[in-house]
Amino acid sequence: MIKKLLQYYEAWMVTVVAILMSLLAVNNREESTWSAFGTHFIQYLGIVTPMIVLLVVRANTLDSKRAHQLWLAAYILYGGTCYVILQTIYYQNAYLIGTILVSIATGIVNGLYNYFFSEKQTKPWWQINFNTFLLIIMCLFALLMAMMSISSEGNPAYDSQERLLIGPVIDGKKILFGFPGFIGYFVQYFTLYWFGYAFFYINQKLLIPILFKQRGLFVYTAGVFGTIMICYPLMAQIAKWMPLDKRLGGIFAASPFDIENGFIAFIIMLFSLPVIWVMDWLQQRHQITILQKQQAETELNLLKQQINPHFFFNTLNNLYALSLTQAKQTPAKIQQLSELMRYVIYQSQSPTVPITAEITYLEDYLSLQSIRKHHPVDISFEKDIDDDQYQIAPLLLVILLENAIKHGIEPSTQESFVDLVLTVKNNNLTFVCTNSVETNPTSHSRGIGLENLARRLQLLYPGNHSLETGYTNNTFTATIKIFAHAIKSIDHR
Fold first, then answer.
1. In a 3-state reduction of DSSP, which class is residue 159?
2. Residue 40 domain-assigned?
3. What are 392's strand-pairing partners?
4. 424 falls within a domain
5. φ and ψ at 345, to 5 degrees?
6. GO cellular component annotations, sorted alphabetically (predicted)?
7. Mean pLDDT in the chain?
């Protein structure tokens, strides 16, 4: 139940924003009651409900293209439109507008993080690291704060002789005609954010790896306080020289040596510690994931190598037996074998192939096997496919057919049969292979062929497949099922 709820984490983030804005709104009222909080929360939650609904639908979709469209619809289309309307009609309700604005900002930051740091994301040459990501976020927030600051100027709701309050408003005309002031705000905000980033960087690159990991907690704590004592007066002095401090009513203490300025640096150091630990852990986990993936790919290749020689050995024996009789169909069968070899050597190297390619392979395989029939064999192959482009890992289905022929048909001294039923419906695949056997196959039903198949399925479709075998009344049945939500996982291999 909890895992299901956490699946909708984006919708929960928007809900938390509504709660935060409700708390801020109540704190600025003379009457702080549960009734007032509930009124604000219902109002703010109502305005973001369409966004929450879109994000819930997004969490349940398997199509990545549709998921991107829903993200754009939630944050950009609805959020942007709602912000413009609210700023026009309810421009005095700063917390209502802030709910939309903060929700959009949260979604964009989360989207950027998922894009750059997702474990499924392949790493191109331009992919950034976490520190660069932080600098980009700092730049975006500096731009946002600069736009809201220049837009709040001259607005009686936010601008007074004592100080400028930064309201959740963005006025394109003020930004355009007051562009030098906008740039001035941006440079000052970015400088302040950079001061905070500098403490984070020192903690990440020097204090934790050198002092904490090598010298222990006491030396690390001393290093933290030493760094703060050296740096904060200089940074506070630079911040006091900025026009922004006076414009906002004095956000820093009057003296650069005031301990309050150092307290800000201490908070950054304190909160950066778990962030750095988490990033180190994520990096280690990512490296382990890469090693596991490489190991799985190596194992898959070895399993394929075990399958292919077994098939070609049997097929060459069949052609040898056919050539001894100087049958006319020998050249055609050799050509058919050539097509199978081309499939195995080239197409099977792809992560997935269309289901039609696998079907053609099965049909050619059956045609080659038919040359060794020394007794009546009834072979049927039923197909019910609703998507010819359904993707499947190559050389999976043929293993059940090989197993049926090796343990059911070839040892048989009387009439036998092989029935194949392949169904693909709504991205769910079911392949059933039923064959006659003369003895109970318990002793060899899990030979190397089926063991390899079980392992490949586990590597390719972990938790999204089933392989079942059974024996009743001289009939052996093997069934493969691959479920719809397994399609996305194999595409990233």
1. strand
2. no
3. 353
4. yes
5. -75, -40
6. membrane
7. 82
**What is the tally of structural domains in the chain?**
1
Where are any strands of DSSP class E within 363-473? Answer: 377-385, 391-392, 416-425, 428-436, 465-472
Question: What CATH number did the domain enclosing 388 receive?
Answer: 3.30.565.10
CA distance 94 to 169: 8
- Which pTM does this prediction carry? 0.51
The token pair that represents 348 in the structure block: 């099977």
Question: Across-strand partners of 377?
Answer: 416
Determine the straight-line distance between the first and last CA of the chain, rounded to whole angstroms: 29
Q: What is the Cα–Cα distance from 456 to 453, expressed in whole angstroms?
A: 5
pLDDT confidence of residue 493: 45
Alpha helices by DSSP H, listed for 242-258, are 243-247
**Cα 316 to Cα 342: distance, rounded to the nearest angstrom:** 15
Q: Which residues pair with 164 in a beta bridge?
A: 159
Residue 199, C-beta contacts closer than 8 angstroms, at least 6 positions apart: 227, 228, 231, 265, 268, 269, 272
Average pLDDT over residues 477-482: 94
**Spatial distance between the Cα atoms of 142 and 469, rounded to a whole number of angstroms:** 62
**What's the gap between Cα 395 and its chain centre?**
28
Residue in this structure with the two tokens 């998921």, named with its chain if needed: 67
**DSSP, res 406:** I
Q: How many CB atoms lie within 10 A of CB 132?
A: 11
Structure tokens at 53: 């609904």
> Is 352 inside a domain boundary?
yes
230, part of any domain = no
Question: How is residue 275 written in tokens?
Answer: 């962030």
Helices (H), 325-464: 330-345, 355-369, 398-404, 448-460
Run of H or E including 479:
strand 475-482
| Domain containing residue 378 | 294-491
pLDDT of residue 434: 94
Q: 51-57: long-range contacts at Cβ-Cβ below 8 A with a sequence spacing of 24 or more?
A: 51/14, 51/75, 51/78, 51/79, 51/103, 52/11, 52/14, 52/15, 54/78, 55/8, 55/10, 55/11, 55/14, 56/8, 56/11
